[in-house]
Amino acid sequence: METPDPLASMPFSYATRSDGTIVISYRTAPVTILRGRSAERFSTRISGADAAAAQQLMARATGNFKRGNEREGKRSAR
User: Fold this and answer.
1) pLDDT the model gives residue 73
2) How would you classify the pairing of strands 22-26 and 12-16?
3) How many angstroms separate the Cα of 26 from the Cα of each of 10, 11, 13, 32, 65?
4) In Å, what is the CA distance from 31 to each residue of 20, 35, 45, 48, 58?
5) Paired strand residues for 23
6) In a 10 Å sphere around its CB, with 0-12 CB exposed, 13-18 middle and 19+ buried, how is residue 22 labelled?
7) pLDDT tens, position by position, 2-53
């Protein structure tokens, strides 16, 4: 049984501010702010990425976020 891709619904988005910082959001809630060298690195990597790769890059940039081993809550079979 294959698990569904959590990034298929495109939950991440990002915005570049005028001062060069990048805000990465998860379902409209900001979770990470990139500044300086990390913002430059992120913008060069995401410029050539397709939508699925961009979602992966944003998920990785957020750090330890949604690894996939969280409990399912009421939906899980116990």
Assistant:
1) 58
2) antiparallel
3) 9, 6, 7, 9, 10
4) 17, 14, 19, 23, 10
5) 15, 33
6) buried
7) 777 777 888 999 999 999 999 999 999 999 999 999 999 999 999 989 998 9
